[in-house]
Design brief:
alpha/beta; 6 strands; 3 domains; 13 helices; six-stranded mixed beta sheet
Length: about 300
């Protein structure tokens, strides 16, 4: 039975081994990788040898062998220790490695997925339309089908989004922008992450009271964001950017005003959230001075002074 076509060239395959060799053979024959890395126990090492002996080409082979194959910790630790060494040894980028977690004990498969999601992006599992034991057993030989799956961490960038969110909440906008921009190169939604990085950069400029730069960066993001969400919920990002532009435009001439006063007070709170308490106090002092200027201007009907 023919398999789906893998979307990238596969130079190496990391496969868990145990039970029937047929699914592993099926995967390897579909891709004919130049390197095969067998994740096995001492007992299934012979199965790995049998698999390798049946290949009609001559890939290099390596073994990640575990003794305590029914314990998650030892399996995970062995993989985390040896995977980087194999990548370095053969100079293979992670994007060109296919991880197949069909074989082995359930614990070995769980450990393989857990360790591999930190490094790799391509996964496969061999299923089939016909199984033994009334559909509950192993796939019947000759009825295999490869199911390709993306790494959910790469697809969703959950950890990176959470880190960027936490940095934003702490008003560390430069750090959030750096994470978003770095992540953009590794996820399908690259342009969306880049646009959100621009928003974070704009907030960093706004926080530095560089309102002209903030207007430029927010303006760039305002053009980029709508088509990237294509009518779907943008979680208020477009409204946030629009309102931020209006605020920064009002503040960039640096004349004392109610808008700039509120921004100074907000800035003091953000600076305190960064644990920069002396700088936060300085902003509060400036806000108090500006409030006095506004009261004086209101009383005398005179124009307010600049914020400098």
């Amino acid at each position: 039975m023919s398999a789906q076509t893998s979307p990238v060239q596969i130079r190496a395959a990391l496969v868990s081994v145990g039970g029937s060799p047929a699914p592993v053979l099926f995967t390897l024959r579909q891709h004919r990788p130049a390197h095969v890395w067998y994740f096995c126990s001492a007992g299934s090492r012979t199965v790995a040898d049998q698999i390798h002996a049946q290949l009609d080409w001559h890939p290099d082979r390596d073994f990640i062998e575990v003794e305590r194959f029914e314990e998650l910790g030892p399996c995970y630790r062995a993989l985390r220790e040896q995977i980087p060494s194999l990548l370095k040894k053969w100079r293979i980028p992670p994007a060109e490695v296919l991880v197949d977690y069909t074989g082995g004990t359930k614990t070995m498969s769980a450990a393989l997925v857990l360790a591999a999601t930190e490094i790799f992006t391509r996964f496969s599992y061999v299923g089939g339309n016909q199984r033994e034991k009334g559909g509950l057993g192993i796939t019947v030989d000759g009825r295999e089908k490869i199911l390709y799956q993306n790494n959910p961490w790469t697809e969703l960038a959950i950890r990176e989004i959470e880190r960027a969110r936490d940095l934003w909440a702490g008003c560390l906008f430069d750090g959030a922008a750096e994470i978003l921009r770095d992540t953009a190169n590794r996820v399908p939604l690259q342009r969306r992450f880049e646009a959100l990085a621009d928003v974070a950069d704009a907030m960093a400029a706004r926080h530095r009271l560089d309102f002209s730069m903030a207007v430029t960066l927010f303006g760039k993001a305002r053009k980029e964001l709508p088509p990237l969400f294509d009518g779907r919920d943008d979680h208020g990002s477009h409204t946030f950017v629009r309102e931020a532009i209006e605020l920064c435009v009002s503040c960039k001439d640096e004349h004392a005003s109610d808008v700039l006063l509120r921004e100074l007070l907000d800035n003091a709170l953000r600076t305190a959230a960064q644990h920069r308490f002396e700088d936060a106090a300085a902003r509060l002092y400036r806000a108090m001075e500006m409030q006095g200027q506004l009261w004086l201007a209101e009383t005398t009907n005179a124009p307010s002074r600049t914020a400098d």
